[in-house]
Design a protein that fits this description.
Blueprint (H helix, E strand, L loop, with lengths): L13 E6 L1 E2 L8 E2 L1 H13 L3 E2 L2 H10 L7 E7 L3 H14 L3 E5 L14 H10 L2 E5 L12 H18 L7 E2 L7 H9 L4 E2 L5 E2 L11 E2 L7 H7 L3 E2 L2 E5 L12 E6 L11 E4 L6 E5 L2 E5 L8 E9 L7 E9 L1
Parallel strand pairs: 1-5, 1-11, 2-3, 4-5, 5-6, 6-7, 8-9, 12-19
Antiparallel strand pairs: 1-10, 13-14, 14-17, 15-18, 16-17, 18-19
Length: about 325
């Protein structure tokens, strides 16, 4: 088997953290407790992680410059009021910036579950928060054609400019679901797109399919959190399919081609498919093909692949691709 390890440094990247609710009485699947969120921030501070804002992240990607060591960016989807009440004061204590992606139709003066206009203005002015779009109606882009996606983006942008002094053009896809049509549209508009699949953002990423690690009480436990915020970006030359919404066959095959002089041993690449036995992994020089053993069920399924770094003890490379059936 081809050995890909060498003495080169691991690829520069930045870990995105995705939260929804920060509270103690909201739906478990999308909630992290206030105490656990506090522990996350304390870990980042104590271990000297560089927490950057969305504008800085975009600058590194578009200029293809090195990210700071231990780079992290913090995001919240949906703009819930509990984020304003519980999370933002804790972030301010550490002087950490964050981004909140708003589904703009849900944001209004009479909505008690979501941030209101006054809270958005205060967060932007006093709490180092960047606001960006999460569509207008929070409809999955996979269900929409090009014209409907364009309308979602247009309505979202129009209202964001009423709510925020300087909204960012990036989009977090509703439910983390996107299609090639959505990616192509964002690319023509020079916009970043964020999913909900795990992995590390790097200049090797597809900029309209950027990963973030979902964080909740289940997936955000401190042992898991410490592992994830120290992960590394696989040096990827190309992967396919990039469109998670189209499967030519079921189960689908994920093909990844790696750059030369990387920092992991192919024999140590492990891949996982939720609810299944380990997938079939076949190498051909610097390219690997990963295929699930069984057909994927209806809904969202992710292929997650990891490998330990040869040069940075205790750190792992991580890549994820979502499939929609």
């Amino acid at each position: 088997m081809l050995m890909l390890a060498s003495s080169v440094h691991a690829s520069s990247g930045c870990i995105g953290l995705m939260y929804h609710h920060v509270a103690d009485n909201t739906p478990a699947s999308t909630t992290i407790s206030v105490d656990l969120f506090r522990q996350h921030l304390a870990y980042l501070a104590e271990n000297q992680h560089s927490v950057i804002d969305l504008k800085t992240l975009e600058s590194h990607l578009k200029n293809k410059t090195e990210f700071p060591e231990k780079c992290v960016f913090i995001t919240f989807d949906d703009g819930y009021a509990d984020v304003y009440l519980n999370a933002l004061p804790l972030l301010k204590q550490h002087n950490f910036p964050s981004t909140i992606f708003l589904p703009t139709q849900n944001i209004g003066e009479q909505s008690v579950n979501y941030m209101n206009h006054a809270q958005i203005q205060h967060a932007e002015k006093e709490m180092n928060v960047t606001f960006a779009g999460h569509s207008h109606t929070h409809t999955s882009f996979v269900k929409l054609n090009k014209e409907e996606i364009e309308q979602e983006l247009k309505l979202s942008e129009q209202k964001l400019h009423k709510l925020s002094q300087s909204p960012h053009s990036a989009i977090a896809y509703p439910y983390g679901e996107y299609s090639q049509t959505a990616m192509d549209l964002l690319k023509t508009q020079n916009r970043l797109g964020f999913g909900q699949h795990s992995g590390v953002v790097s200049t090797d990423s597809v900029y309209q399919a950027l990963p973030r690690f979902p964080m909740s009480n289940l997936y955000g436990r401190m042992k898991n959190f410490a592992l994830k915020v120290n992960t590394l970006a696989f040096p990827i030359e190309h992967y396919s399919p990039q469109d998670p919404s189209v499967m030519a066959e079921n189960p689908p095959t994920l093909e990844i081609s790696f750059k030369e002089n990387t920092d992991f041993n192919p024999s140590q690449l492990n891949c996982f498919v939720a609810g299944q036995t380990p997938p079939i992994i076949v190498w051909n020089n610097r390219t690997v093909r990963i295929t699930a053993q069984d057909a994927l069920p209806k809904g969202r399924t992710k292929y997650n692949c990891t490998a330990p770094s040869q040069t940075q003890r205790g750190r792992y490379y991580w890549f994820s691709q979502q499939f929609l059936n």
